[in-house]
Amino acid sequence: MQKLLVVFSILTVISASRPVFASEEPKHEGTESEEHNPTEVIFEHILDSHEWHIISIGEKDISLPLPVILWDNGSLVVFSSSHLHHGESYNGYQIGVGEEYEGKIVHTDSNGQIDAVPLDFSITKNVVALLFSATLLLLIFIPLAKRYKKRGNQAPKGFQGFIEPVIQFVIDDIAKPNIGEKRYLRYTPYLLTVFFFIFINNVMGLIPFFPFGANITGNIAVTMTLAVFTLIIVNFSGNRNYWRHVFATPGVPFWLMPIMIPVEIIGILSKPFALMVRLFANITAGHIVVLSLVSLIFIFKTVFMSPVSIAFVLFMDVLELLVAALQAYIFTLLTALFIGMAVAEAEHH
């Protein structure tokens, strides 16, 4: 982890040759200020990007450029995303437009036609936010683990006492009942990691200022990765009884096996798929609702809409705090349930 942070720091320094820039949108003569586009604002927040927008002051957008890392025709290309600001082109590379290339970095020829779409390994806003949340988790739980090791079974103090009930909740109400007394300790580290990772990133996404506010758990690539980890752990933990129910379901006639086996395999894949979509959809929907309520002020163009909009936003933010904890709980609970089903022994009568 330390090596990863060092590499990230070096790349960020390289990227920040123009570290934080303020850009001014051109004003069209004879026109008033542009109409507020809530769709553009919402998608700018919930989608990933190659720069981190910090704040807008008047017509100036203050953003943090991030490293662009491309693999194009067998060569590595690294430069700052500040070179691509506002549709600019850098050595033929630019951010594509249109449904097919929206948000992707493409390479264009001398006529401006797209001739290649390089592999993109850039450090985007979500990657930076993930590194930040991972660092935060390490800073919280490494000292906490040392304190547990040092104090043993003594009564917890300070921050240890604050977080102890949550850890015990995951162990006593999620791991033990669903996996069983004999095997729960083997899977508890993963369950605790998943719970706190999802919860902390959910809460960070609700804080609207830098370095928070990234929609990490509303990114389907992140939720898919968590679901794939669960899929791997569940199926590698599966015992003989688990696989017998997949390929030779007890009580099912032999002639039904060609139908039942594909159905069981689909069931294996649909469980992590449901985990992925549930977390992604709930978190993304919450962000969209909050931003839509804020946009009402600019859509109606009246200050009298502000109290109504702010009241609803405060209500939704409180509700989203509940959702942040609830979605972490549900993902962890279902993961423990799937593991428990995979390691359960056959009943003998």
Task: Characterise this structure.
With 349 residues, the protein is mainly alpha-helical. The protein folds into two domains: 2-120, no CATH class; 125-343, no CATH class. It is 59% helix and 12% strand. The protein has ten helices and nine strands. The chain has helices at residues 2-15, 38-46, 98-101, 125-151, 159-179, 184-206, 220-237, 240-247, 257-300, 306-343, and strands at 21-24, 51-57, 60-65, 67-72, 75-80, 93-95, 105-108, 114-116, 119-120. A three-stranded antiparallel sheet has the order 1-3-2, with no helix packed on it. A hairpin with a 5-residue loop joins strand 7 and strand 8. Helix 5 (159-179) crosses helix 10 (306-343), helix 6 packs antiparallel against helix 10 (306-343) and helix 7 (220-237) packs parallel to helix 10. The longest helix is centred in the C-terminal third of the chain and has 44 residues, at 257-300. It is globular.
Describe this protein with a few key phrases.
single chain, 349 residues, mainly alpha, 2 domains, three-stranded antiparallel β-sheet, 10 helices, 59% helix, globular, disordered N terminus
Largest sheet: 3 strands, antiparallel
Could you tell me the strand content as a percent range?
Answer: 5-15%
Q: Determine Rg (CA atoms, Å).
A: 25 Å
Q: How much helix, percentage-wise, in residues?
A: 55-70%
Structural class: mainly alpha
- Overall tally of domains: 2
Instruction: Record the strand order, biggest sheet.
Output: 1-3-2
Uncertain regions spanning at least 5 consecutive residues:
1-33
Q: Using the alpha-carbon principal axes, give the shape.
A: globular
Measure the end-to-end span: 50 Å
